[in-house]
Design brief:
Layout (H helix, E strand, L loop, with lengths): L1 H42 L3 H8 L2 H9 L5 H14 L3 H28 L1 H8 L6 H14 L2 H17 L4 H23 L6 H25 L13 H15 L3 H13 L6 H36 L3 H28 L1 H10 L7 H14 L3 H16 L4 H59 L12 H28 L5 H25 L3 H16 L1
Helix pairs in contact: 1-9, 1-13, 2-7, 2-13, 3-8, 4-5, 4-8, 4-11, 5-8, 6-7, 7-10, 8-10, 9-10, 12-18, 13-14, 13-16, 13-17, 13-18, 14-17, 14-19, 14-20, 15-16, 15-20, 16-18, 17-18, 19-20
Length: 542
C-alpha cells in the first residue's frame, strides 16, 4: 500500500512538472516562432540573416565549455543529496563554491573571446570572406557574448529551484528571454540602420531579465545563501568538475551538429544558412514540447530512484517516458513533413516582402529532411538523462564525440553534392546513429546496475526498441500516404490565400496523424491503446 502511494506521489510530481514544462516549452517555442518570424520578415533569407545566425557560434561554444546545458543535470543530484539529509546550509555552500568558480571562468572566457573574436570568425564561418561580412559578424558576436554569463549562472540558479521541485520560475525564463529578442527586433525594425543589431541587443537584455533575474528572485525567496566561498578543496566542486569535464571537453554531435552546419553553410549562397535555421526552428517546437519537457520533468524522480537503489523502477520510468514522448514526436514529424510548406509560408512568407514563395519552398524541403532526425533529437534529451542519473557523463560524451568526428566528412561531402538538403540529411543521419548507440549502451548499463543489486530488468513494460521501431514504421508509411494525398490536394486547393493554406494544412495534418495513429494501433503499440483508453475515459467522465 505504501509503495503504491509512493508511486502515485511520484506520478503526481512528474505530472505537475511535465505540465509546467510542457506549457512553458510550448509557449517558448511559440514565442520562438514569433521571434524567428520577425527575424524572417525583417532580415529575410539574406546574408544579414546568415550573419546573425552565425554570430551565435562563439557564444554557444563558451556556453558549452562551461557545461551550461548540463548544469541542472550535474548540479541537481549534488544539491538534492544535501536537501534530502536536511542540510540546507551545506547545499547552499555547494551552490556558492560552484557558482563562484563559474563566475571566474566565465568572465575570463568572455574576455578572451571578445579580444580574439575577429581571427576566430574566420574559423566559425570561413565562407564569409568579405571585410564587411566579417566586421558585421564580429560586432554581433561581441554583443551576444556577455549574455552567456547570465545564461550560465541562471542555469545554476534554476537547477537549485528544480531540485526543490520549484519549476514555475525556471520554466518562465525562456519566455522572457524570447520576449527580449522580440522587443529588440521590433525596435531595430524601426531603425533600419541597426540591421541585425536590434536582435543582438535583445538577446543580451532578454538573457539578463529571463534566465538570470527570474531564478535569482526565486532562490532569494527560498532563503538562498550565496557566499564568497572559493576553494578547490570542496568535495562538491571536485565532483561537479569530474561530472562536467567530459561535457566541457567532449564535442558531442548533439552540440557540434549546429556548428558544423553553420560552418559548411557559409560556403553556400546567400540565404542557405537561413533556410537551415528556419527549418531547425520549426523542428525544435515538438522537440522541445515533448522531448525536453519529458526529460526535465522525469529527471529528478529518476535520479531519486537511482539514488535509492531502485534501478528497475528507474529504468522502467525512463522507458515509459521515451515511448510516450516518441508517440507524440512521430506524429509531429509526419505533420511537419507533409504540411511543412504551409507552416513555413504562414509563419514567414504570408504578407511578407523579404521572404518569398521560393524561400518557403526551399525551407520546407530542408525541413522535411531535418525531420528525419526529429524523433532522435527528442529521444536523446530523455535517454541522456538516464546516464546522468547514474552519474555517467563520460560515456554519452565519448560516444557523441566519436560520432561527430566520424560524421564530419559526411557533412562536407553531402554539402558539396546537395547543398542545404545534403546538410539536413547529414544532420539527421548523425543524430540517429548517436541515439541508436546511446540507447543500446544505456540498456546494458542499467542491466549491469540491476545485476549488481541482485535484480534484473523486466520485459514488456521496460522494452524500448520494439515499440519505437513499430512507431517509426507507422510514421514512415503515414508520411508516404500523406505526400500522395498532398499531391491530390494541391490540384484541388492550389491557390495561396490565407484560408486555403490553413485548410490545406489542417486537412493534411488530420490525414497524416490519423493514418499514423491507426497504423500504430494496427502494429499493436500498447502505449497508443493505453493512451486512447485514458482519453476516452476522461472524455466520458467530463
Amino acid at each position: 500500500m505504501a509503495e503504491q502511494q509512493d508511486r502515485a506521489g511520484q506520478a503526481r510530481v512528474i505530472g505537475i512538472a511535465s505540465i509546467i514544462w510542457a506549457s512553458s516549452i510550448f509557449l517558448s517555442r511559440v514565442m520562438g516562432l514569433v521571434r524567428e518570424q520577425i527575424i524572417g520578415r525583417t532580415l529575410g533569407a539574406s546574408r544579414m540573416a546568415d550573419l546573425y545566425f552565425a554570430s551565435f557560434t562563439l557564444p554557444d561554444f563558451l556556453n558549452y565549455l562551461l557545461a551550461a546545458g548540463a548544469l541542472s543535470i550535474v548540479f541537481i543530484p549534488i544539491f538534492l543529496a544535501h536537501l534530502e539529509r536536511g542540510d540546507h546550509e551545506r547545499g547552499w555552500e555547494s551552490f556558492s563554491v560552484i557558482a563562484n568558480f563559474i563566475v571566474v571562468v566565465g568572465t575570463v572566457g568572455i574576455g578572451l573571446l571578445m579580444i580574439f573574436a575577429r581571427p576566430l570568425a574566420t574559423l566559425v564561418a570561413p565562407g564569409f570572406s568579405s571585410d564587411g561580412d566579417v566586421d558585421t559578424l564580429v560586432r554581433l558576436t561581441r554583443i551576444i557574448l556577455p549574455a552567456q554569463f547570465f545564461h550560465v549562472i541562471g542555469g545554476l540558479l534554476s537547477a537549485a529551484l528544480q531540485a526543490q521541485n520549484l519549476h514555475a520560475l525556471p520554466a518562465m525564463a525562456p519566455l522572457v528571454y524570447s520576449a527580449g529578442i522580440i522587443i529588440g527586433g521590433l525596435i531595430g525594425a524601426h531603425y533600419p540602420q541597426l540591421g541585425a543589431e536590434g536582435f543582438a541587443w535583445g538577446v543580451l537584455a532578454g538573457s539578463i531579465a529571463g534566465p538570470f533575474a527570474l531564478p535569482l528572485y526565486g532562490c532569494m525567496k527560498t532563503r538562498m545563501r550565496w557566499t564568497a566561498l572559493f576553494t578547490f578543496r570542496n568535495p562538491d566542486l571536485r565532483r561537479y568538475l569530474w561530472l562536467s569535464v567530459p561535457i566541457m571537453i567532449g564535442f558531442s554531435i548533439v552540440v557540434v551538429d549546429e556548428w558544423i552546419v553553420k560552418n559548411q553553410a557559409s560556403y553556400l549562397g546567400a540565404g542557405s544558412l537561413s533556410y537551415l535555421q528556419y527549418g531547425r526552428t520549426l523542428m525544435k517546437v515538438p522537440m522541445g514540447m515533448f522531448g525536453m519537457a519529458a526529460g526535465v520533468a522525469a529527471y529528478p524522480t529518476i535520479s531519486g530512484l537511482v539514488a535509492a537503489g531502485r534501478i528497475v523502477e528507474a529504468y522502467g520510468l525512463l522507458c515509459r517516458a521515451v515511448r510516450l514522448m516518441l508517440l507524440l514526436t512521430f506524429a509531429a514529424q509526419v505533420c511537419l513533413t507533409i504540411a511543412g510548406f504551409e507552416a513555413v509560408y504562414l509563419i514567414w512568407g504570408l504578407f511578407a516582402d523579404r521572404f518569398t514563395v521560393a524561400d518557403a519552398q526551399q525551407t520546407a524541403t530542408v525541413l522535411a529532411y531535418l525531420c528525419l532526425g526529429l524523433s532522435a533529437w527528442a529521444a536523446q534529451t530523455v535517454i541522456s538523462r538516464g546516464f546522468y542519473a547514474l552519474e555517467s557523463t563520460w560515456l554519452p560524451t565519448i560516444i557523441g564525440t566519436a560520432v561527430a568526428i566520424v560524421m564530419v566528412p559526411l557533412y562536407v561531402v553531402l554539402r558539396q553534392q546537395y547543398g542545404t538538403v545534403g546538410l539536413a540529411i547529414a544532420s539527421s543521419t548523425s543524430i540517429m546513429v548517436y541515439v541508436i548507440l546511446l540507447g543500446w549502451l544505456q540498456r546494458r548499463r542499467f542491466e549491469k546496475e540491476a545485476a549488481a543489486r541482485g535484480t534484473r530488468l523486466l520485459r514488456g513494460s521496460q522494452e524500448m526498441l520494439g515499440p519505437v521501431l513499430r512507431l517509426a514504421a507507422a510514421a514512415a508509411i503515414a508520411t508516404g500516404l500523406g505526400l500522395i494525398a498532398r499531391t491530390q490536394l494541391l490540384s484541388w486547393l492550389p491557390d495561396m490565400h490565407l484560408a486555403t493554406i490553413l485548410l490545406r494544412a489542417t486537412l493534411l495534418c488530420m490525414f497524416g496523424i490519423g493514418a499514423y495513429l491507426g497504423l500504430a494501433r494496427f502494429f499493436l503499440v500498447t502505449d497508443v491503446i493505453e493512451f486512447e483508453v485514458k482519453l476516452f475515459r476522461k472524455l466520458r467522465l467530463g
